[in-house]
């Protein structure tokens, strides 16, 4: 039982931190980049909303209740990065503080539904025609969540180090990753069209 849990947890973790899936890494960072480390509760809520969204579609697709179109999902993922980056820049430019929080949570939840379909393709290929997927699915999902918190922790450690060493403020990092997200997502969208 523990062997199954840890093997699927490891697969979920590796799926998130794999640089071949850099679009997922960039999305998670872009989603959280506008928050200060002192806003760790907001960061946790955004990540949890994203996890809730992708958990729903990961379960539904893995149980074959929905059948995602891989082409559309691979196209929609960079669109989620584009929207997140653009929203970061627009909300900072117009200083939309109160609405930004709830819109960000809604974005995270909705975009999690899209990313979950991508995770489900990987998970379904991994499981094949196996029955009894609930426990491996749960373990895989926990691995994805741990991977996301790991990525965000590394991001904020680097942010802290850059602030201490070079006095670079968080808003510059947020701007950089938002613009990077927009540019990379546009490239991916054009490649996938």
Give a quick summary of the entry.
With 193 residues, the protein is mainly alpha-helical. Helix content is 83%, strand content 0%.
Helix coverage percent: over 70%
Order of helices and strands: HHHHHHH
Number of distinct helices: 7
Count of domain modules: 1
Shape: globular
Strand fraction band?
Answer: under 5%
User: Termini, distance in Å?
Assistant: 43 Å
Taking Cα atoms only, what radius of gyration do you get, to the nearest Å?
Answer: 17 Å
Question: What is the count of β-strands?
Answer: 0
Query: Class by helix and strand content?
Result: mainly alpha
Note poorly predicted spans: none
- Biggest sheet overview: none
Task: Give the integer mean of the pLDDT values.
Answer: 87
Structure explained in plain terms:
The chain is mainly alpha-helical. It has helices spanning 2-17, 22-32, 40-62, 70-93, 97-127, 134-166, 170-192. The mean pLDDT is 87. The chain has one domain (2-192). Helix 3 packs parallel to helix 5 (97-127) and helix 4 (70-93) runs antiparallel to helix 5 (97-127). Helix content is 83%, strand content 0%. The longest helix has 33 residues, at 134-166.
């Amino acid at each position: 039982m523990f062997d199954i849990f840890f093997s699927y947890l490891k697969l979920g973790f590796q799926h998130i931190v794999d640089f071949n899936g850099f679009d997922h890494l960039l999305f998670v960072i872009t989603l959280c980049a506008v928050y200060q480390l002192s806003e760790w509760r907001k960061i946790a809520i955004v990540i949890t909303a994203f996890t809730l969204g992708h958990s729903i579609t990961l379960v539904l697709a893995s149980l074959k209740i929905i059948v995602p179109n891989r082409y559309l999902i691979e196209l929609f993922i960079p669109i989620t990065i584009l929207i997140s980056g653009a929203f970061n820049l627009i909300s900072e430019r117009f200083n939309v503080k109160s609405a930004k929080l709830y819109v960000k949570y809604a974005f995270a939840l909705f975009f999690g539904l899209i990313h979950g379909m991508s995770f489900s393709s990987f998970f379904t290929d991994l499981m094949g025609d196996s029955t009894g997927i609930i426990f491996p699915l749960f373990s895989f999902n926990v691995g994805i969540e741990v991977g996301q918190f790991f990525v965000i922790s590394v991001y904020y450690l680097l942010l802290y180090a850059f602030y201490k060493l070079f006095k670079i403020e968080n808003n510059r990092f947020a701007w950089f990753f938002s613009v990077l997200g927009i540019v990379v997502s546009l490239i991916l969208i054009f490649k996938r069209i």
